[in-house]
Amino acid sequence: MERAAEALGWPGVVVPDVSLLGTHVSVVVVPDVAAHEWRLENRCAEPLLDPDSLTMWEWPEGRGLFPPSAVSIHGVLTGVGRSVRSALSGARKWRGFAATAVALPSGEAASDDLLLECSYSGIAVVCEDQDEAKVIQPGHDGRLATARRTTVDRWIEEKLYGRLLADTDLADALL
After folding, report:
1. Is 109 exposed, middle or buried (0-12, 13-18, 19+ CB in 10 A)?
2. 136-151 burial, b for 16+ CB within 10 Å, e for fewer?
3. What predicted TM-score, i.e. pTM, was given to this entire model?
4. φ and ψ at 128, to 5 degrees?
5. What is the share, in percent, of the chain residues with pLDDT greater than 90?
6. Is 36 within 8 Å of 125 (Cβ atoms)?
7. Pairwise CA distance, residues 76 & 1, whole Å
8. What is the spatial distance between Cα 15 and Cα 25, in angstroms, rounded to a whole number?
């Protein structure tokens, strides 16, 4: 998935094997080192998953008072595990949060139907090879234009922040 994110030009760190929103994906996050340092200094570096508290953290009036988000989601990659159809469905669920892409394994051809449906939904298609990944079809950058930020965004960011803190290979991204 790292090669797919690189081929798409997505900056950040790939957090693999994330199970959220009924999907199994890899999420590309951009760590905010300054926000992480702020949270360390103010003794709130642990992720918070309480919806009521997160709602307050998202209030515009609370900027500077509540902990800033230590990560932002840049993109979501779905692999073709069970089927191409389930990968497409998973990618569609994440369009409200970030750019999305379906990563096809080496040797898997992109059908015309898949390319058409991904194009309609703004989902990129990447074919991973053993040495490289190639973008077969570009997708839209960022989240859907009609999607607004909610407490669910912050909850997902906190979950991913927790993954970065817990995984020694990924924790270096916060330094």
Report:
1. exposed
2. bbbbeeebbeeeeeee
3. 0.91
4. -90, 135
5. 69
6. no
7. 10
8. 9
